[in-house]
Each structure stands twice: as C-alpha cells, then as structure tokens.
C-alpha cells in the first residue's frame, strides 16, 4: 500500500470503514473479527492494518466519525435559524434524521460502546458531552433572548440528551416507533420541560 495515490488510499479506507459498520452492527464488537471486516470490504489484512492498528482502533474511529458528523450537522442546523424555538426544531429534525440515516453508526456509538471498557466508555461519554454542550449553548441563547424562561441550562441539556438517547436506543433495538413518528411528541415533551408556553409549542 502506497501513500502516493491519495484517491486510492482514501477510497480503500472508506471501504474498510463502511464494511466495519455493517459487520459491527450485525455481529457486535466481541464477535467481529478483522477477517470479517476484510472479507466484507473485499480487501487484504495488510490494507486493514495499514489504516487501523487493531479492531479497537477502527471501532473508535467509527464512533468519532459519527460524533463529528452529528456535531457538524447540528451546528449547521441551529445556525440556519435565528430564533431559539426554531433552532430547537431544526436540531431535533436533523439529529433524528441522522440517527435514521446512519443507524449502523448510531448503534456502534451509542449502544455497542456500552460496557466495552474504559477507552470505549470515554468515547461514548465524549459524544454525549459534545451533544450536551451544543444543546446547552442553544438553551442559554434562547433564555437570553426571552424565548424560554430562565433555567439551569446545563441540567436541562443533560436531560434532553438523555431523553434523546433513550428514544434512539429503543428504536435501534426494536425499530419502532420510527424516529420520524417520535418527533412530534418528543418535541412537545422537550418544549414543555423548559417552560415553553403551550400556545408556542
């Protein structure tokens, strides 16, 4: 494998990552072998180890990829709206849409990382912390502009992320209700939890 062909290099790495999503999501972390990922990617072990020193490293890379994607898309969504409640709606739509679109990645980042050890737990908590900070910032801005009553934004943000995690995790396991079906009630619940008047919900 040579680093002199960046297009080929990136294509191979992407193919390995996509294969890993499928295999991890199907077999789980412990039952997945590097050979399974290599076979799914239709590449060689040498290519795998060129990019990822171990199974743990590719699992962490997938978790980080999902966290980066979620954070960037949520940031774009809230920046596209000027009002606090519209920002909340945009963030909810985008986050549930991403979980739906990338169910395999979401399963890896939010479900399979639980109980795998300190390294994985640190990554999983980092995803929650990043999402919580983003929500907290928007809640603080909404309170400052008067869209919502004053509140403990850090605590409210943790509660929001916890509620979202529970709904997404249940959907990952059962497939029901769809995240699209969950959106209206989730939106109402979260809005009421921060004191938004009924006429504005």
Task: Give the key terms.
single chain; 201 residues; mainly alpha; Arc Repressor Mutant, subunit A; Tetracycline Repressor, domain 2; elongated
Overview of this protein structure:
- The chain has about 200 residues and is mainly α.
- The protein folds into 2 domains: about 1-50, Arc Repressor Mutant, subunit A (Orthogonal Bundle); about 55-200, Tetracycline Repressor, domain 2, CATH 1.10.357.10.
- The chain is built from 9 helices and no strands.
- The radius of gyration is 19 Å and the shape is elongated.
- The model has no long low-confidence stretch (mean pLDDT about 90).
Amino-to-carboxy terminus distance = 56 Å
Major pleated sheet = none
Number of domains: 2
Strand content: under 5%
- Counted by DSSP, the helix tally is 9
| CATH topology tier name of the largest domain | Tetracycline Repressor, domain 2
Please count the beta strands (DSSP E, at least 2 residues each).
Answer: 0
The Cα radius of gyration reads: 19 Å
Helices and strands, in order, run as HHHHHHHHH
Based on the coordinates given, report the CATH architecture of the largest domain. Orthogonal Bundle
**Helix/sheet category:** mainly alpha
Unreliably modeled segments: none
Give the oligomer, counting copies of the same chain as homo and different chains as hetero: single chain
CATH level 4 superfamily of the largest domain: Tetracycline Repressor, domain 2
Described by the principal axes of the CA atoms, the overall outline is: elongated
Mean pLDDT: 89
CATH class of the largest domain: Mainly Alpha
Binned, the helix content reads over 70%
